[in-house]
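Need residues for this backbone.
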């Protein structure tokens, strides 16, 4: 009998960890990281070199998209040359390996 009462009291004491808290829920907490106003994106000056860089890319390559995106963000004028998937001589002639972006 004593063992049953002891087991029952330990069960009741440990079950309080699973009870719903009775403290009020705070509603004044902001869901955003910052409450300051952000400034709109301002594009920098256009960078145009005398000889435009040529970017050799595959149209399906995610790394090539990254390079083109970075050049666009930096506002660098460039020429894009799309490589075909089976074009081995062009990248091999440029860097010695079939890899893009170049």
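Answer:
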């Amino acid at each position: 009998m004593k063992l049953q009462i002891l087991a029952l009291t330990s069960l009741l004491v440990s079950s309080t960890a699973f009870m719903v808290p009775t403290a009020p829920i705070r509603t004044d907490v902001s869901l955003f990281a910052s409450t300051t106003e952000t400034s709109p994106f301002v594009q920098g000056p256009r960078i145009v070199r005398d000889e435009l860089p040529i970017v050799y890319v595959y149209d399906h390559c995610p790394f090539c998209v990254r390079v083109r995106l970075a050049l666009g963000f930096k506002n660098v004028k460039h020429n894009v040359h799309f490589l075909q998937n089976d074009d081995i001589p062009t990248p091999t002639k440029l860097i010695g390996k079939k890899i893009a972006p170049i």
